[in-house]
Amino acid sequence: MKRRLLLVSNSTLHGGGYLDHCQQNISHFFGKDVKRVLFVPYALHDRDAYTKTARDKFQTLGYEVDGIHEAPDPVGAVRKAEAIFIGGGNTFRLLKSLYDNKVVSEIRRRVLEDGVPYMGSSAGTNVSTISINTTNDMPIVYPPSFSAIGLVPFNINPHYLDPNPNSRHMGGLREGSMLLVEGNKATLLGTTKARLFTRGKPSVEYDPGSDLSFLLTH
Amino acid sequence: MKRRLLLVSNSTLHGGGYLDHCQQNISHFFGKDVKRVLFVPYALHDRDAYTKTARDKFQTLGYEVDGIHEAPDPVGAVRKAEAIFIGGGNTFRLLKSLYDNKVVSEIRRRVLEDGVPYMGSSAGTNVSTISINTTNDMPIVYPPSFSAIGLVPFNINPHYLDPNPNSRHMGGLREGSMLLVEGNKATLLGTTKARLFTRGKPSVEYDPGSDLSFLLTH
């Protein structure tokens, strides 16, 4: 499997600028071959302003950004994307827009079959997993399903704060942490630990640098 | 309209026992005529244990409790209920179970047409409004709709904590506060202020005792 994912918990970290805390990881991840990144701003209301924010940041890293909402055909835009970045905001609004624009399965196909690198931040990390069942966001709109893009076979709770004994979710990414997935290898990156929840087992803390590949095999 | 509602933000308040902080309001609300309360424990997984908790508390106040899940026919149980109490837990689980058991419209009919008193706590307050769009809970299951019982024409966010400038929800009930609705009269009760959000207007704080009847007329 060609899958390459960079799943970031949060886009800004205590006072830093947009994506500052993970910019080296972004440059590493997309590398020199990628020239243009398809940005999906569906999680926020003002798509133009959001795309400008992403574009300004990515240009400092040497990448051009295309907003998916600027393309006449969103599915076509996914079909020819070199790289995909889905930004944060409201997870329900994001997933509903992904379904409304019929790009869920095409993004999955491009990432899992064609190896197009996928970066997600916050809500964009949530929708990369099997479902949005572990979002902290308010359900401001009703998506046709809670099933998501399904690039990994577990759930992630971005902005993870406190252990909740009633929760069954699979993983908590604290602010400052991110998950790098390359094929069947998963590595925890960033500056904070992450917490793994597995039903029927005690939760476990993992340090940055930990190999979490076992999460990809069930 | 005969509607009588007691909508409580939270069932336990900083260290107190279950429903201790609002027990006088409960006695006032159900009064002497009500003998039995139909309890809806759908928001928690262990319905028997939850019903026992409610039963033990209500017995100290002079009311018998029937768990709706103990009845062979939930719709029939609603049809003959003297009073209804929907407890808190996970709002998504609660609303899905209400739909699965086909009791949403029957509860609405009994409360709005027959004047059966309705008490809600937390998730039970959420589902009494027009929709669950302002819940803080995790979407652990997928209900067939976010539309709720619709006993009032606005949203409530129980356990309200912080102003969120991106939110459009209509009202925040802080822990310790509750809303009493009698026909077309609404009164804020409890020990904490509540905050009203209206789209396009500045949010407004209301003290306990405030008349909020204007919320019922739009």
TrEMBL record, chains A, B:
Swiss-Prot/TrEMBL GO biological process terms: proteolysis
CDD domains linked: GAT1_Peptidase_E
Gene Ontology MF terms in the entry: serine-type peptidase activity
Pfam family, one: Peptidase_S51
Keywords, ordered alphabetically: Hydrolase, Protease, Serine protease
Domain of life, source organism: Eukaryota
NCBIfam families per UniProt: PRK05282.1 (NF003642)
Recorded family membership: Belongs to the peptidase S51 family.
Protein name, per record: Alpha-aspartyl dipeptidase
Native organism: Dicentrarchus labrax (European seabass)
Gene, per the UniProt record: si:dkey-69o16.5
